[in-house]
Model the fold of this input.
Amino acid sequence: MSASARIIALHLGLLVLLFALQFILPAYHHGNLARIMVLATYAVGYNILFGYTGLLSLGHALFFAAGMYGMGLTIQHMGFTPAPALIVGILAGALVSGALALLALRTVGVSFMIVTLMFAQAGYLTVLYFGEYTRGDEGFVIQQAQRILWGIDLSDATNRYFAAWALFSVSFIVSLWLVRSPFGRTLVAIRENEERVRMLGYDTYRHKLAAMVISGTISAAAGAFYGLLFGYAGASFASVQYSIFPLLWVLLGGAGTVLGPFVGTLFMFYLIDLSSGVTSAYLLIAGLALVLLTLFAPQGLVGEIRRRIWKDLP
Amino acid sequence: MTKLINGTTRRGALKTLAGAAAGATALPLWARYAQASSSEPIKIGFQQHSTGIGAAYGRWYGRTTDAAVKLINEGGGINGRMIELIAEDDGTDPKRGAEVVEKFATQHNCDVGFGTLFSHVVIGSSPRAGELKLPYFVVSEGHHVASGMLNRYTLQPGITDVKSQVQAMAPYVSENLGKKVTMIFPDFAFGHDHRDFFSAAIEAQGGEVLEKIAIPPTETSFTKYFPQIPRETEVLYHVMVGPAVLTFVKELGEFFGPSSPAIFGFIDSLEAVDIASPGLEFLEGTYFWEGNPRYAQADQTEHDKFFRAAVGVDDNGASVSDPTDVSTYAHMFGCWETLHIIKAGMEASGYQGTGDRAKLIEAVEAMTDMPESQAHPQGAKVFNGKTHQVFGHQYISRVEEGKLVRVHTTSIEDTLYPDEVDYTTQPL
Done:
């Protein structure tokens, strides 16, 4: 088997495994995995910008929330059905990420982080400001009757799982294809040495712009699906905390690896879930695990596997 | 004690139980085992704000819940079964809240979920409770339950909602403090509820709101907003939530000096905060809504006395073991009362296990009058089974020598409003 075939087999194998787990997992873990797959999609989106392009955004909650509210508000106030509402959510993410990219990509490094953070905070405050429509911090419920997509009730556990799996699969395959494409390789080159890439004749600004839009759009798709699958849209998802989460997941799993976002999200979710059953100081345990990982696996879990075992893992 | 309507009574429930027991002897062995398993404890999932912005409330909700569970278990439990409390921290976050509800339903196999306070956590968690058919008893005071936003599996039988609280304040404010009101509130949903409900209520009393001053939630200094307060203001109505309230009060005092309008606020801002704290001197002589009087009053009822002792709260509303640890007394009684309602509902419905969750919902929906008692130490209440919301007396207190002294008790009728939903029409 060629190296390329092995890589494709590994990644498709994960999707097959996740599909099969639907039929095996007990109810609690079944529900968790559905949630993790949607959140991992968010991390996949984040990874394209941070892991592959080397741009550290602290404002991705803006895109996640754009998707969530683009979907939720059109259902709530305009009577949209889920399919067009999802499209609006995803387009909202593309639009917002494109607009922010035009402004934020004028900056680099710490300035880029601050600009993205500030715009995300402005987005959060906008959700609060238009509380008449968004119900501000309280948020609003997307009722069960409003969550029927092409006759499929997304509040049903099995349907929800498959919807989450479909979303994750699409983003995962797009991510794998993207990073192995010439475009993706250029992004990695930009991450490694932008000046050299520019010297070679590439328009790095356009590449970074496209990366940010793709990243923001995938994040928005995750936000839109999250709201639809779990029946709630609220301002907390636009808060700074939700900009930090995908960064943590990607760092833990392995920035610049296709598998990393999923592994990181899974690891973090169960770390919190299991440690909270042991002690009320579970955040301390989570923090300790992060410190240990940073010390002993600075490239993340999948990053370490790549470093030690599988050197051409994308 | 809880009165039931719609033909469901405790005697009826006992008859059903007796019939079921007789029938069980005729069942095959496996089915009899299922009946025998009812000696297992009743599992109550306690969704607790142990961390995050609600941590102070969560700590006291926890103490109150522990005390109520201890009392109920010492009295023989529910239908002879002990309560096993399973507490999970939701971090005062709606996403984690929904996950905790899932954990209760599908991992711990809890009979019910209970105890959530912050509205965004309730609203984020409730859809999952409804889908998993887990009876979800919230202690939130949000209007979300009665507004019809949630579902048939979500109930609020142990604490009144903000709409009824706010509306019940208007008659007293207009008759005793003044009719020209300026409102200062945080610019998010909780503040908007106050703005909308109180504006309507004071106008119904012949008063008017001169100015509505919304403070952005990230604000840390308030002096610049005070010049917006019109000169003819007779009553300043404030509700500020979060740590900024201390700065707010201090700056308000500096702005007005000795000549201020009458000031009326909601104690939510100052729950778990000592009224005698330095910087809060300006509150002397001002008025507060209290869900339950923090300081033991001169005419304290035996039930309040019992409740205080059971939870470990002194006459000043602080922990008996640490006088600086002030309780969230205006809200935490809701946990105590809700647990007693769960007990009453399970006993009335002959609750045996998770298969009877629908019967439990129907039994609670059938409740109406809840007289003041050991189970309801805050006062008498009336439950509306259609809207899943309870209604009860509200208290207005005045700060006198650094203590809150009750000056008015509203009637339950003052708190009522037309139904906005009938959850009983939704399938179980």
Chain A touches chain B at residues 26-28, 30-32, 35, 125, 128-129, 131-132, 135-142, 144, 155, 157, 230-232, 234-237, 273, 276-277, 280, 282-283 (CB under 8 Å). The two ends of chain A are 17 Å apart (CA to CA).
